[in-house]
Design brief:
single chain; alpha+beta; rbstp2171; 2 domains; 4-stranded antiparallel beta sheet; 9 helices; 36% helix
């Protein structure tokens, strides 16, 4: 029995708050614009200190208090919003970044307020949560979708399994999951794989940017002023600095 799923998704009486989803629920069957998320507690430290293969997924299963939505089926932008909520309510919204001034080459620290983030929102998706666009090189009309969190994990697991002497197909693996139709014709996995392998690089780069620009998410980019006075745009991201309070590292 997966106790984390039962604990997190059945006991709705636990202290929680409502987190608005950047996606507005447009990509999910239940169309939920917000979900109940529990606060981090001392018991969650057992998860954080465990040797679980995917601590983030285990934690999300434990803290999402909804019976009809799983973190595996959510978009990355929504997952990021939940992680920011958990961090802000547990440790505060201040995030200290370790940066380097490009003019002086000296290291400096800068504190970002994670409670003040803008929403990146592109064009609205189709009713089924997909996008239709025209590729600039081939002129093909394609239907694409953003990846779910489980798909991102699956792709990363495949990449991690590649030996050091082989180049993992990071780009093509994503494209094979993102593309659904070509010129209004649904294709099976083999047909999509063949199409992707012969796709012009201009089209593959276009798809990557198109999905990034249109998948709803919180904008983690911040423009800051360095000690030398230069303007610098940094991507806060979800690296060591973000997760440091979770693991006390």
């Amino acid at each position: 029995m997966n106790t984390s799923i039962e604990y997190g998704q059945i006991d709705f009486s636990l202290p929680h708050d409502v987190v608005s989803l950047p996606s507005n629920g447009l990509f999910y069957k239940n169309k939920k614009k917000s979900i109940k998320v529990g606060y981090l507690t001392a018991s969650d430290e057992n998860i954080l200190m465990s040797n679980s293969k995917d601590i983030t997924l285990t934690l999300l299963r434990n803290k999402i208090y909804e019976h009809d939505i799983r973190p595996e089926d959510m978009l990355e932008g929504d997952i990021e919003a939940i992680l920011i909520f958990l961090r802000n309510t547990a440790f505060g919204p201040e995030l200290e970044l370790n940066l380097k001034d490009p003019n002086t080459k000296k290291n400096f620290t800068y504190t970002v307020d994670l409670s003040v983030l803008n929403l990146i929102k592109g064009q609205s998706p189709e009713a089924d949560g997909t996008f239709v666009t025209i590729l600039p090189k081939s002129g093909d009309k394609i239907k694409v979708k953003p990846l779910t969190y489980s798909e991102i994990i699956d792709i990363q697991n495949v990449i991690d399994a590649y030996p050091d002497f082989r180049i993992p197909p990071k780009v093509t693996l994503k494209l094979q999951r993102q593309i659904l139709e070509i010129n209004e014709k649904p294709l099976d996995k083999n047909e999509i794989s063949t199409y992707v392998e012969h796709m012009p690089i201009m089209d593959s780069k276009y798809i990557k940017k198109f999905i990034y620009d249109n998948e709803p998410r919180l904008d983690m980019r911040k423009e800051i002023t360095t000690p030398s006075g230069e303007k610098l745009t940094v991507d806060v991201g979800f690296g060591v600095d973000f997760f440091r309070p979770f693991f006390s590292i």
